[in-house]
């Protein structure tokens, strides 16, 4: 048995009578009566544990907790469990990590324990604010819908977000934990490292938004700090690449529909048209973090942190709205003369938080003109009507590889003489260097040709994050009708010289369908794609295939290999690269010879799929046998369920679908999964449809 609470946003009122509003802060005295074989946890340390008998004479334990600090109702919390814990003390703050007994015994929460203290100290030193509680409990819950929650002094996590198996050499798992923990801690004043960085949340706990319409002040700031904290604990992580790849790029893909809300909406509008739960979305978290990143870039990190520190001190144990934050930043800006701004912080930042969407900038190289408009889909009728939003935009830029002073675009268009390049010169210009601003850039043909040419001659002349952004921008511009696909493809000619996996991933995201087989190999495009892409993929494919064959452990610190190598290999095999198919058969055969052998985790799904595809019923039967092995994990089982649908013999697929109907072989929820896996394969498409109609 286990009880754990999750009261954000408005569930405290279902536990005890209260004014359940974030601005109505109070202190709380909590007492819990529970079964003596369990332990009770709450926000504060227990100050008394006694016994009492009920009217039937049964014995109960009464745990009384110290009075809490002044805080919002949604942060009160309790857990009643029979877990074990590991503990250490950092600067007088006792940190305990609770989990199922066997997980603690096996050392699965040791990594989380080792990084939690240092993240707290990092945040305290950075923001110059001390953590006000005597203890912090982090609890790993086997099942937890919210993922993680920053209850003050008692944080709760989905188990997988807090556990790191010592056998897991994987950086990306550590990275995710570090990120999530630092996120939750960040409130305590902000893929697994990420979930872990939840520790960052003492912002929201110390200074809480006045009401939920400014939720981004909690979550967006915490999401920004979670990446700083994660790279502090795991210095090998490349902060700007991960931040752009995981935060900015995904939200730019969402924040361009007409109905998308702005970051900060009026209370009335939210009460009228949004549910509170819908505010816990990528606009709040990712756009909030992206806009914060931009703010800290044009202010400089030093000024930004100074302003935040003064904001946290002034509003400790109370509430604030975004204008309060702008006021504190303005005070810091006014007190110095290095950073000059074209308008007040409020005017600049309101243009990003109070308007929905974001701008696309268009540069004309010959005249040096930059214009802005809202980035919307031109292929849809009425999408461009009556939208005359303008933003105050910081533009970092370089000319011929040398960085230039920051410039600002504060109206719909403006001429920058320093950006004029006559046709007779070969200069090139790059805007929004390293993606410091939350917008897309559209270049004229002349500059694009020069950039494409530069990439073919010397790709490293453009920083990696900017190459990523160039490619992501041109494909987004194509999709929304700003430019032709040919223009976008010009920028991909250089890819044979691209050695960054996160850039390859964005290329594949745009050129190769998400579900490889579902396009049923469009007969016009597939052969062209095969010829065009394979030629360019070979160098990076062979580079990584070498590690897979000789020394896969060498990749354990390569974060992007852990996240994206699978996609690269799956695409190479899908496009029929012989070496990829051979490698899959070799590794699969090795596993068949010795079931103890571990196929390299990074490409296990691809190897199992193509091992079965290239093989016969012998390979398929082995997958089936391994699936039914008692000690295979949920993840192993899913990989094998998918692999068995990769068979190329139609009778094997028929038999597999038939197995899927059997109650004795599978649990009932597997039937639809098996049909789904089969239907997305080339030859499975028709077979699955026939099977469904026959067995309707």
Automatic annotation (TrEMBL):
Zn(2+) binds at residues 183, 187, 219. GO terms for molecular function: metalloaminopeptidase activity; peptide binding; zinc ion binding. Its cofactor is Zn(2+). The lineage of its organism: Eukaryota, Metazoa, Chordata, Craniata, Vertebrata. Its main location: membrane. Residues 2-75 form the Aminopeptidase N-like N-terminal domain. Pfam families: ERAP1_C, Peptidase_M1, Peptidase_M1_N. The active site is at residue 184. GO terms for biological process: peptide catabolic process; proteolysis. Residues 428-696 form the ERAP1-like C-terminal domain. CDD domains: M1_APN-Q_like. It is found in: Membrane. The record marks 285 as: Transition state stabilizer. InterPro entries: Aminopeptidase_N-like_N, Aminopeptidase_N-like_N_sf, ERAP1-like_C_dom, M1_APN-typ, Peptidase_M1, Peptidase_M1_aminopeptidases, Peptidase_M1_dom, Peptidase_M4/M1_CTD_sf. It is a single-pass type II membrane protein. This is Aminopeptidase Q. One of its GO terms (cellular component) is extracellular space. Residues 111-352 form the Peptidase M1 membrane alanine aminopeptidase domain. It comes from Antrostomus carolinensis.
